[in-house]
Amino acid sequence: MYPLISGADAKYDNASSKDALNCTGGTLDPRKAKGKILICLHSQEDCPFLCRTHKGVEATRVGAVGMILANDENSGSGIQADPHVLPSSYVNFIDGSYIFNYINHTKSPVAYISKVVTEIATKPAPFIAFFSARGPNPVEPTILKVYSSFIR
Question: Where in the cell is it found (predicted)?
Answer without folding.
Answer: Secreted
